[in-house]
Design brief:
With about 350 residues, the protein is of the alpha+beta class. Helices cover about 20% and strands about 30% of the residues. It starts with about 25 loop residues before the first strand and ends with a helix. This is Toxin-antitoxin system toxin subunit.
């Protein structure tokens, strides 16, 4: 189960994005923690909006879970998801912050109020995340600023698109409109992903043994984890992409394999390759979770599909090579290939 608090693509809770452009959101990262900042102008004064932020009955109209809270600093909060089939897939119980009823009926996550200064500031923890909602007068209305702080940078587009839809629902509720059920089919997520630069890869050192196609032991920080110790000479290079996708691993695998199931020792199916990157035999395959193949005798490519935020699978793609590995070409080639994959997934 995923361990990510926050909004999720539950069609019973979110209005249709209608291909809306992303809000003017920003990301900042400090000491491994990422802060997503979003603003929304609302027609109602802060006092009206405050009630919608803090009253459980009003929250039920737009927030991604049922909420129970003690509106005092240090007060307990509970986030309940009655429909485990949709909600729990996106917001599991991580770090002891959640619990299940045990009968498949609901998932509960907990947090605590960290600030309650009516009608200016409401802040709380949700699992290991922190959310701050501030209100300022804006003419006859309000300027609402949300700052969501979390540890999963590649999941930022999921959080942004989810909160985008929640804030739209908040506006509809405050305006007395019917909150229209719907969901983000992926386009809004991809808009935020590109705006945040989360489609870009990175170059760094890699374990020497990874260059042979054998990954190091898993650790934390994503499906690929933390690789084993680097080679003594530090000469091995690695190109790495980590990208949240909008479809589950099984669907991603179907698109990549295109009906040709990979087999160790045989040529890698074309869908797992990129232009200008050599392709050799498959060396390891665990459908639909991972595939490794030799690009050249001293270069390997590895695909991994793990848990993400609830939008879909989390892709980690790496290519390793020797000191003269052309990382610029690899970055360009894999960026294009992963973009092609992401576009194809939107049609599924």
């Amino acid at each position: 189960m995923n361990t990510t608090p926050g909004p999720h693509p539950n069609p019973a809770r979110h209005p249709d994005p209608d291909a809306a452009a992303p809000d003017n959101a920003t990301l900042t990262t400090t000491d491994g923690r990422t802060a997503l900042r979003m603003e929304r102008r609302l027609a109602q004064p802060p006092e009206r909006v405050w009630a919608a932020l803090t009253d459980p009955a009003a929250l039920a109209q737009w927030f991604p879970s049922e909420v129970a809270l003690d509106l005092t600093p240090g007060g307990r909060m509970e986030f309940r998801f009655p429909d485990v089939g949709t909600a729990a897939a996106a917001v599991g119980a991580g770090d002891g912050a959640g619990d299940s009823a045990g009968d498949g009926s609901e998932t509960v996550m907990t947090g605590a109020v960290t600030a309650a200064e009516a009608p200016r500031l409401f802040a709380f923890t949700w699992g290991t995340d922190h959310l701050s909602w501030s209100l300022a007068p804006d003419g006859e209305g309000s300027l609402l600023t949300l700052v969501h702080t979390f540890g999963d940078l590649p999941g930022a587009a999921s959080f942004a698109s989810g909160w985008h839809l929640c804030l739209t629902a908040l506006g509809q509720s405050l305006d007395g409109e019917r909150v229209v059920p719907g969901r983000d089919t992926g386009e809004l997520h991809e808009s935020y992903l590109r705006a945040f630069g989360l489609d870009l890869g990175a170059v760094g050192a890699a374990p020497a043994r990874e260059a042979t196609g054998t990954p190091g032991p898993s650790g934390t920080g994503g499906p690929s984890g933390t690789p084993g110790p680097s080679g003594a000479d530090g000469a091995v290079k690695r190109v790495r992409f980590e990208r949240q996708l909008v479809r589950p691993a099984e669907t991603v695998w179907e698109v990549l394999s295109a009906g040709i199931e990979p087999v160790a020792g045989l040529p890698v199916p074309e869908g797992f390759t990129a232009r200008k990157v050599p392709a050799g035999p498959v060396t390891e395959v665990r459908a639909p979770a991972s595939l490794t193949y030799q690009a050249t005798p001293d270069s390997a490519v590895r695909w991994e599909l793990g848990e993400g935020t609830g939008h879909g699978a989390r892709l980690v793609l790496t290519q390793t090579g020797p000191a003269d590995f052309d990382t610029d070409t690899a970055l360009s080639a894999w960026h294009a290939r992963i973009d092609e994959l992401a576009t194809a997934l939107l049609a599924r």
